[in-house]
Write a structure and sequence with these properties.
There is one protein chain. This protein is mostly helical. The chain has one domain. A 3-stranded mixed beta sheet has the order 1-3-2, with helices on one face. A hairpin with a 4-residue loop joins strand 2 and strand 3. Helix 1 crosses helix 3, helix 3 packs across helix 5 and helix 7 packs parallel to helix 8. The longest helix is centred in the first third of the chain and has 51 residues. It is globular, with a radius of gyration of 22 Å. Bound molecules: zinc ion. Zinc ion binds next to helix 3 and helix 5.
């Protein structure tokens, strides 16, 4: 038999769960509008900075799309199947953190931002992450710089008639975007955190090329990479060729 007190407890637990859910939804909306206004306000000057520092530019601004991804309640980073937490070197589950997911979509020349966290750890963690977002803009700047690099790569590929290049040379394509991101934000450790090994290999192969030659280096990579070529050999060949071409 459920007592009156029992009913009251059940009711208040229900109310608590409801308001917690509403709070989560509300935070998701706040995060959405913060991200949207940040990207809209900063896109132009980030594009100008890329042009000034690396010579990278495309015609006009890309379209911007924002989407709220569904909230997934989990405290840890899960494996691809979503069944088990990923463990660190000491066997402890890796805690989830804020990730601003984004894509460059060539079909309509747009940047797509998914503006909620991949995972939703505890309430305190979310507040910390919101403060981190507004106080320290690097993670978002990194994402914008990264996707703009994909946009530039796509434009060069199109102009050279190499439409499927990025897919056929995925690690180099990711390497270019990561190199631009790191050069523009100056935070290598943050940019390389949780990046798949293939992309890290691409990054190690091209970072000096992009850092030393900017746009010329990126154009060289797209024009001269041979799918399947050993990345260390490619790097050596590229740095030699570029040094010759620019009389260094
Ligand atoms: Zn990328």
């Amino acid at each position: 038999m459920i007592t009156k007190r029992g009913v009251a407890i059940i009711a208040s637990v229900g109310l608590l769960a409801l308001s917690y859910g509403a709070l989560q939804l509300n935070r998701n909306s706040v995060y959405y509008s913060m991200t949207k206004s940040y990207v809209e306000r900063n896109l132009e000057h980030i594009m100008a900075e890329q042009k000034a520092r690396l010579g990278i530019s495309c015609a006009g601004e890309p379209l911007l799309h924002f989407e709220k991804s569904p909230i997934i309640l989990t405290t840890y980073v899960l494996n691809k199947e979503g069944t088990k937490p990923i463990l660190d070197k000491r066997g402890r589950p890796v805690k989830a953190k804020m990730i601003l997911e984004a894509n460059y979509i060539p079909a309509d020349d747009s940047l797509m931002f998914y503006t909620s966290e991949v995972s939703t750890p505890g309430l305190l963690d979310r507040i910390v992450r919101a403060v981190t977002f507004s106080g320290k803009t690097r993670p978002v700047d990194g994402t914008i710089n990264h996707e703009l690099a994909h946009r530039y790569t796509d434009a060069v590929c199109k102009s050279l008639g190499k439409k499927g290049w990025a897919l056929a040379n995925q690690s180099l394509s990711e390497g270019i975007a990561l190199s631009v991101e790191v050069l523009m934000t100056g935070n290598e450790a943050e940019s390389l955190n949780e990046i798949p090994p293939g992309s890290i290999a691409g990054y190690n192969a091209v970072k000096e090329i992009v850092a030393g030659y900017g746009r010329q280096g990126i154009d060289y990579i797209i024009q001269n990479a041979v799918p399947g070529e050993d990345l260390t050999q490619f790097k050596e060949r590229a740095l030699n060729d570029l040094a010759m071409m620019s009389g260094r």
